[in-house]
Amino acid sequence: MTQQPTPVDTLIRDVMVVTMNAKREIIKDAAVAITGDRISHVGKSADIVPLVTPKNVVDGRNFVMTPGFVNGHIHITGEPITRGYVPDDSGWHENVWEWLVPLYQNQSAEEEAVSASLAALEMLRTGTTSFMEAGTIRFLEPVAESLTKAGIRGRIGSWAEDRAFDPSEDQTAKTDAAIKAMEQSVASLPGSDMIEVWPLLVGHITATDELWQAASAIARDKGARVSAHMSPATADPDWYLANTGKRPAVHLADIGVLGPEICLTHAVHMDDEEVAILAETGAHVIHCPMSAFKGAYGIGPAGKFPEMHDAGVSIMLGTDGNNNSNTSDLMRAGYLVSAVFKDARRDSSIFPAYDAFTMLTLGGAKGLGMQDMIGSIEVGKKADLVLHDTQRPEWQPLFNPIYQMIWSADGRAVHSVWVDGKCVVENYRSTMIDEQKLYADATQAGLAVTRKAGLPDKQAWPVI
Predict the structure, then answer these.
(1) CA distance 290 to 219
(2) What letter would DSSP give residue 320?
(3) How many domains are contained in the chain?
(4) Checking CA distances to 441, which of 17, 310, 373, 411 falls within 20 to 30 Å?
(5) Both 130 and 262 in a single domain?
């Protein structure tokens, strides 16, 4: 008896698919079918097309399809709407505490929502379909609403820190308040596949052991993650050594919080003992090469990311904040991670393009604990898909799509994007957001925030 074709929502046919499946197959002349929010069929077009009856057909000729990228660390508030305002010649301490923190503290709920929309738009239009935010949101609900409207998948968290640097402060009261606020924020929005609140920390030296332990316990109970900034500069390990007698990762392991639910962002100034502890505990590292270069963190001479990789530490890539990295295009991070250590170690075998591309996809999915849902193009997984337009000079001629994406191309060739089965970018434009209105709103919001912060405009050349 002849099998009746299966109804599907969308069929993308005659496309080159980078599956990231267990065999890492790249399928030419392929077809991928979407049914609801899931991938229902993957294979050669000749095999798949007779099996389905699609409501919508997309001609995939001249395109390469990849899984949606996963951004492990991005500041979606504060920095997108003040892009380019912070001078690029300030040191790490001045950059963070004298510029960025005042910009964050002077945002309204509406301005944070606009900033989040702009960040989501840039991520989607450059191929990122899922992200973990940096834990620096002050107004969760309007931000979550704007992200939902954009159509992106995200994990977000409220600003959380509790260390009393002023001796007159009541440390116990401050810690109790921070833990209570974290518990309330995690419970404030219903969890979903799309937007979920996690117990994220600002990190560095701002969290007490008690806050670390509370965040870790919440994450384990919820099946979530704790991310925290740690050791981009030597200031963090210097403080931990002076105040605990141990380096950060050693101390976190000793207090029982370093495990698979922990993601340490930056992790540039780690020693060999810390690398071994990260591997042993299953903790994840989020590498942000763009901000490291701009911030002069010293990743070339100091970063032990090749050693982490060799030891089995899970590494994700992040773009950090727009005032640090200037773009949310994660493909540029893929280029840098593949390049920097080749040069620093004078060894071209370090982090080949295949490893960098894995960090963009499955590495990010694993870091979020979502490898069963996203990160590859396989039947049953979420339909988070990206079409890259190869009819562009940087994509021609096309011999090796992985080399092309890491060494030649960037997110500007992203033509169409599906998240959770829904087309959110089509023909280079958002289907969810009024882009021109958003740009106008972002400009006004940025002007308002910089005025409220009272920070000077330090452009070196006159604007007339």
Answers:
(1) 28
(2) B
(3) 2
(4) 411
(5) yes
State the Cα–Cα distance between residues 15 and 29, nearest whole angstrom. 5
> 192 falls in which pLDDT band (50, 70, 90)?
confident
Residue 59 inside a domain? The answer is yes
Indicate if the alpha-carbon torsion angle 410, 413, 418, 419 is positive or negative: positive
- Partners of 203 in the β-ladder: 229
**CB–CB of 123/328 below 8 Å?**
yes
Global confidence as pTM: 0.96
Spatial distance between the Cα atoms of 132 and 124, rounded to a whole number of angstroms: 14
Give me Rg for the CA atoms of the chain.
22
Nearest to 68 by CA among 143, 151, 149: 151
What's 317's DSSP letter? E
* Residue 426 lies in domain: 6-67+383-430
Does residue 142 contact residue 112 with C-beta atoms inside 8 Å? yes
Sign of the CA dihedral running 195, 197, 202, 205: negative
The amino acid at 20: M
Round to whole Å and give the CA distance between 167 and 164.
7
DSSP letters, 188-218, are HS---SSEEE-----BTT-S-HHHHHHHHHH
| Rounded Cα distance, 422 and 176, in Å | 42
Helices (H) and strands (E) in the chain, counts: 19, 17
Q: What angle do CA 335, 386, 382 make, to 5 degrees?
A: 115
Instruction: Give 234: exposed, middle or buried? Use CB within 10 Å, 0-12, 13-18, 19+.
Output: middle
Mean pLDDT on 263-284: 98
Q: Is residue 148 part of a domain?
A: yes
Measured distance CA(455)–CA(101) in Å, rounded: 11
Are 20 and 31 found together in one domain? yes
The owner of tokens 């106008």 is 440
Query: What pLDDT was estimated at residue 191?
Result: 67
For the four alpha carbons of 265, 210, 92 and 238, in that order, the dihedral sign comes to negative
How many C-beta neighbours within 10 Å does residue 187 have?
Answer: 12
Name the band, by pLDDT with cuts 50, 70 and 90, for residue 190: confident
CA 10 to chain centroid, in Å, comes to 27
Dihedral sign for Cα 158, 420, 323, 249, please.
positive
Distance between CA atoms of residues 9 and 54, nearest Å: 5
As beta bridge partners, residue 74 has 133, 320
Distance, CA of 310 to CA of 258 (rounded, Å): 19
3-state secondary structure of 429: strand
136 φ/ψ angles, rounded to the nearest 5 degrees = -125, 35
Cα 199 to Cα 78: distance, rounded to the nearest angstrom: 19
